[in-house]
Amino acid sequence: MTHPILQVLDTSYGDITVELEAAKAHGVDVVDRDDTSVQADGVLVQYAQITGETLDAHPTWAVVGRYGVGYDTIDVAAATERGVAVVNVPDYCEEEVATHAAALVLASVRRIREADTLTRAGGWPNWHDLLPVPALSEATLSLIGVGRIGRKTINLLRAFFGRVVAYDPYAQPIDGVEMVDLDTAVKVGDVISLHCPLTPDTHHIINADRLAMMKPHAHLVNVSRGGLVDSVALAAALRANALGGAAVDVLECEPPSPDDPLLSAPRLTVTNHLAWYSARSEPRLRSLLASRCAGMLVGVDAPSVVNRAGLAARLTTAEKAR
Ligand code: NAD
After folding, report:
1. How far is it, in rounded angstroms, from Cα 298 to Cα 213?
2. Which residue's CA is the nearest one to ligand 1's atom 18?
3. Does 94-270 match 5-92+279-321 at the fold level?
4. Could you tell me the pLDDT band of residue 315, with boundaries at 50, 70 and 90?
5. Given this model, what pLDDT does residue 319 score?
6. Sequence-ordered list of residues with C-beta below 8 angstroms from that of 15, at least 6 positions apart, any chain
7. Which fold, 5-92+279-321?
8. What is the pTM of this model?
């Protein structure tokens, strides 16, 4: 008897042991990308862009699993048109990403990276070089996007800040958080933290105009997607001393080229897209994705099919046409 096959197209995890174990429970095999002897029924991808052309070149794929929460690397409309399910894992790292956002907020405001550099360079008495540092109990935390991770970030940071405001056109009210429009969120924040997905609507949601609206001492934190921020404009604002600082876990181009303008901008802390990671979250992500995609191949519905509604509509249209 032949088993359905999932192929791991690209990951940075080094092996496929976790995926094999998780898929086995559904009687599904997993092979890695080097195995060219098989025609896979579905794929698991971390970084690869999956376009309509990719899907046309692999007509046997019934499911594309994306390692992570964001799925902006996958042309979901193209997948839906072809009847291919797109599966993500929105529920594996809320705690980790919110913790990383909170760490970046505090590090940027307290100027930890610059103080470290100053101290190592013999500047111990020169603390005034690092001013101003606001008292957070008098400051406003402003979030753009308050879904799973945004809400968790608020829970972690609420105790530090005097006021919390948020912009999210789709969210329900949150206790103790003032919901405001986008420009107000940008104008009133002493710290602005981004927690919305990257979509055509949110691409460069922080552009030169919005950077100019920010308070001159404000800090911008981005753990969501690099494309939310115009990085050339952010680098220019930091160089012009028009912002207090910025801290980002994500960049427009990852990994960055050595001449990425943000890498040489002052008062910028950057981490290498690791907000999602903990010793718990990595195996959890791999196991949940493989298990959900394997299940889809044998008729077990997954809780996180990104294009569920589109696939259902496509089926209805096909039935009507019969
Ligand atoms: P979520 O879907 O639970 O929340 C996203 C929120 O953004 C929703 O409330 C939605 O209403 C809101 N939103 C949508 N469009 C908006 C807009 N135009 N303006 C303002 N808000 C808008 O997602 P989540 O689990 O909270 O994750 C958020 C993002 O974090 C993901 O899309 C992903 O890109 C990023 N992420 C990054 C890492 C990392 O390692 N750096 C890890 C996981 C997730």
Report:
1. 52
2. 202
3. yes
4. confident
5. 79
6. none
7. Rossmann fold (3.40.50)
8. 0.93
Task: Note whether 28 and 294 are within 8 A (CB).
Answer: yes
Confidence at residue 30, expressed as pLDDT on a 0 to 100 scale: 96
Supply angle C-alpha 204, 202, 249, rounded to 5: 65
Q: For 203-234, what is each residue's pLDDT tens digit?
A: 999 999 999 999 999 999 999 999 999 999 99
Span from the CA of 232 to the centroid of ligand 1 (angstroms) = 23
Nearest ligand 1 atom to the CA of 170 is 11
211 Cα–ligand 1 center, Å: 20
Q: Where residue 37 falls among pLDDT bands split at 50, 70, 90?
A: confident
What are the residue ranges spanned by the domains of the chain? Answer: 5-92+279-321, 94-270
- For 94-270, CATH number out of 3.30.70.3270, 3.30.70.260, 3.40.50.720, 3.40.630.30 equals 3.40.50.720
Please check whether residue 87 is in contact with residue 300, taking contact to mean a CB–CB distance below 8 angstroms: no
171 lines ligand 1 (CB under 6 A): yes
pLDDT for residue 1: 65
CB of 250 sitting under 6 A from ligand 1? yes
pLDDT band at 321 (very low <50, low <70, confident <90, very high): confident
Q: Is 71 in the pocket of ligand 1 (CB under 6 A)?
A: no
- Say if ligand 1 is within 6 A of residue 249 CB: yes
Alpha helices (H) along 51-205 = 52-57, 76-81, 94-109, 112-120, 148-157, 182-188
Residue 21 CB contacts under 8 Å (≥ 6 apart), including other chains: 287
Sign of CA dihedral 296, 300, 305, 308: positive
Name the active-site residue from 33, 82, 273, 284: 273
